[in-house]
Design goal:
The chain is an alpha/beta fold and 257 residues long. It has 10 helices and 10 strands. A 6-stranded mixed beta sheet has the order 6-7-8-3-9-10, with helices on both faces. Strands 2-1-4-5 form a 4-stranded antiparallel beta sheet, covered by helices on one side.
Length: 257
């Protein structure tokens, strides 16, 4: 069941996540690599966001949340006491369901991370990083003449691409996306899906989605969760056309969820 990969970017082994006494994730072992986009699917409350947050220690910020087991980034234990969590979250960036730009200019939204991590030697280099991140996020053309405008003045889809640019600007290795399109219209959603295609291979990408068609379109590997358990993990085409487990089949055919 726990399909392994030769060169995993992230490897989880026997991961449990608790909120107080309640176990929200039960014994999950998966590998995520650079070459494939990985989709997490499953009914509401099955633990997708919980598991995703354990991959860059965002659960650390939730009182009572506790993670057991091993989560390795390039073979390094991200829960080791020597791990710098700020650094980790730059290496493993996150994009949320609701676009959440800072109430700052478009430029400053993207420059924020590079500034705090000291990635640019001067203004020219910072300008270059901002342009490059906005370009990779597919937003440069739309904002290059208005970089001083507030990020919150953009459309929802533009705001989400700005948030992706912000994550990219610190040169991450992994990008975690938790239902990044659920607040967007179909056109803005299509732009984000195109973007995920373009970013594939440059970053390890994990996307949580409730939209089966979206999972089928953007991912090469799919993990199906149910009640905190990883039920099935494999090639997206296999999961959608020939699932091994009845629970997977019931979910993807819309019998529950
Ligand atoms: N901060 C929290 N404190 C306590 N329990 C939580 C917390 N966050 C989530 N849970 C519980 O953990 C379980 C998994 O929740 P999670 O948000 O990870 O599910 P999900 O698969 O992302 O659902 P959805 O599709 O609705 O976003 C649920 O039973 C939920 O109630
Ligand atoms: Mg969720």
């Amino acid at each position: 069941m726990a399909e392994t990969t030769a060169n995993p970017k992230i490897s989880t082994r026997n991961v449990n996540v608790y909120y107080g006494e309640k176990k929200a994730i039960d014994n999950v072992s998966i590998d995520v690599d650079m070459d494939n986009v990985t989709a997490f699917i499953g009914p509401s409350g099955c633990g997708k966001s919980t598991f995703l947050r354990s991959l860059n220690r965002m659960n650390d910020t939730i009182v009572g949340a506790r993670v057991e087991g091993n989560i390795l980034l390039d073979g390094q234990d991200i829960y080791a006491s020597s791990m710098d969590v700020v650094q980790l979250r730059a290496r493993v960036g996150m994009v949320f369901q609701k676009p959440n730009p800072f109430p700052k200019s478009i430029y400053d939204n993207v420059a924020y991370g590079p500034r705090i991590h000291g990635l640019a030697a001067g203004k020219a280099e910072l300008d270059q990083i901002v342009e490059s991140a906005l370009t990779r996020a597919g937003l440069w053309g739309e904002v290059k003449d208005r970089l001083g405008d507030s990020g919150t003045a953009l459309s929802g889809g533009q705001q989400q691409r700005l948030c992706i640019a912000r994550a990219i600007a610190v040169d991450p290795e992994v990008i975690l996306m938790d239902e990044p399109c659920s607040a967007l219209d179909p056109i803005a959603t299509a732009r984000i899906e195109e973007l995920i295609h373009d970013l594939r291979g440059k970053y390890a990408i994990i996307i949580v989605t409730h939209n089966m068609q979206q999972a089928a379109r953007v991912s090469q590997r799919t993990a199906f969760f149910h009640l905190g358990n990883l039920i099935e993990f494999g090639e997206t085409s296999e999961i959608f056309t020939n699932p091994r487990e009845d629970r997977t089949k019931d979910y993807i055919t819309g019998r529950y969820g």
